[in-house]
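Objective 1b: paired records.
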Amino acid sequence: MLRNWRDLERTEELSPRQERWLRRAWWLYWSMLALSVGLVVLRVVEGDPPLQILFSALVVAVWIFNLYALRKRLRGHEAASAARQEG
């Protein structure tokens, strides 16, 4: 029986394909965070208006949040997988 995606998210049951994509997303998110930080530094060095610097800093904050959420999901999946293998 197919279950709702929210049920899958709660139980952290992921297919191997989904897990691979999450791991790829992890590296993509880190890359985007690095590029966003570089953009903030570039804007500060070039003396851009504070509003543009603030917007770029907001983009950095969004990528940090995305990384945190993805890491939490991956760790939950790893814990659920380990528990399933043990018992």
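Objective 1b, second protein:
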Amino acid sequence: MSKPSTSFPAPMVDRAAVPVWDWPVRVVHWAMVVCLVGLVVTGLRKGDAMAWHMRLGEVLLALVLFRILWGFAGSGNARFASFLRGPRAAARYVRSRLKPPHEIHVTHNPVGGWMVVALLVAMLLQATLGLYANDDVFWDGPLAKTVAKETSDLLSSIHRRLAWVVVGLAAFHILAVFVYLVAFRENLIRPMFVGSKRLPAGFGTPEAARASSAKAIALLILCAAVVWWIVRTTPSAG
């Protein structure tokens, strides 16, 4: 569980590497990054690239569904309950960053936790809208024909505009990571690769980052199957 501290961060020599992120969180995180980059590139290129755009959108939808469910059924640190806090906690954390003593959090801080939720919700909505979108020329989303053309056009318009919201949130997230690296000398990138984070004694437990591989794989397969079923078996309204 995320345990904040109101003391100054301990010197790095007094810290130890503690597991904080399970492998499903890390793998899905970087898979979503790859999908987002691919979606931006293919969305801008259009044309034949739209075939890959739709495939990547379906993959992203499955990944986002998994991460949301894993936020309730995953390891202790992966669960939303371990890092989501109220407005007061977020405000207190911001104050601690502007003026020491700094709070320490095992996983996401109170502000970062809500950024994660915002990104997941935005990506979920964007990927879902993409299923009903069309480009008015060659390409239709897999569910575009299940709604009226006017509805598909409206959803397509929202899809195009929401894309910039997703890009903006992702860019802000990346900027924040680099601010922490440069200004606060906190490397938030490395833990998302290796799974561990250097923390003072008493912060974090290995058990909180321990995940059931069988449950993770089964849940990932289930999410992929649900997306496949929706996309491939829903009859069109043609």
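The first strand starts at residue 16 and ends at 19. Residues 149-183 form the longest helix (35 residues).
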